[in-house]
Amino acid sequence: MTGLLLVTFPTADIPWAVKLDGTLVDFDPAVWWPGREDATWRRKPSRVNSTMKVDVTLPVVATTGAPLAMLAALRGEAALTLTPSVLAGVPISGSADLRNAAGTQVETVIDLLADGNRVHATGSVAASGDGASDAWDLIVTGPALGRLAPVYALLTGDGGGSRKVDLLMAGTLNAKVRARGRWPALTTQGQFEADKLRIGAMSAQHAQGRWSLGTSLTAQVDAQVTLTQASVTQADGTVGPSIESATLQLQGTGRAHTLELRADSKAQAPAWIDTMQGAQTAPDARTVGSLRVQGGLVDQSGAGLAGWRGTLQQLELRSSSTAAADRAPLLRSRDVQIEALWAGGPPRATLQPTRRGARRRAALEPHRVERCRARW
Length: 376
Hints:
Blueprint: E1 2-8, E2 16-27, E3 47-58, H1 67-73, E4 75-87, E5 90-100, E6 105-114, E7 117-126, E8 135-142, H2 149-156, E9 169-182, E10 185-199, E11 202-214, E12 220-232, E13 243-253, E14 257-265, H3 271-277, E15 287-300, E16 304-319, E17 331-341, E18 348-353, E19 362-365, E20 368-371
Antiparallel strand pairs: 1-2, 2-3, 3-4, 4-5, 5-6, 6-7, 7-8, 8-9, 9-10, 10-11, 11-12, 12-13, 13-14, 14-15, 15-16, 16-17, 17-18, 18-19, 19-20
């Protein structure tokens, strides 16, 4: 490792200033990385080669602002180049650049290639104004996630002992995400698709989704996500309850939208439920759940986007067994008013039935939980 670092400490008239010119050659991060000594990734080679050049300034007044405001106040350039390297046996290369030479906007570009898988991201943050012109784009191309399993094990500390590292990641993932504006005025569009996906303990045979969302009351809200054969593997290697299929759909505007979720699983209710209801559930029966919520964003004067208010119209969980078709559902809830606010005070949420005669109510906020008496 070689380099030169110069830091200028600020005063009322002099901003923070950092200059760095450094080089890494055959650096082995595994020596410094925490984790089990018998972890599989420790036995794989790691040689990181990179160059870094930084010449940036930051006004003192900006250090007390929000992270995006600090980023917008940066002046100068920073560049990191990851020349062909190996991390836990995985070939990697890439670059990251940040610059604001003209003082009007900060531009960032990140590109990372890891054994055939790629992440490419660009961002632009206006140095002044409300951030309406801010833009962020992300593209993930992952045709061979299984090749990244050793890096995943290194970053998460997993894969020690007899556990097989190559089982930690698998499948394919492709995604595109676009965001415009700055909170609380944001819009985002995107899509993703994954096949035979496995990341750590979670897995799914297929996952696909698309969305177009905005935080204003008039913004169109449209999203759809489908999932098949999703499960979580327990620490002892056994597969926990799985979701055979699930579909989520969101439509409307910021002011008024509807969310619907339907899912089914091979998991069944305990046998004592059959005893109580006097019917036998078929061995091949599934548990089916459905959810329907309607509501809209809350916009308060002077606070912008302040929260969400709506109604849980239906939440139901029942068996798909023919013998159980006429039985009461395992779980049912209807007509529950929901309000979640995060402006004008601490974050808080309220739940209250809307049916005639109902007097039950629950409220939640930091350091306080309020509930009423319930009967059944």
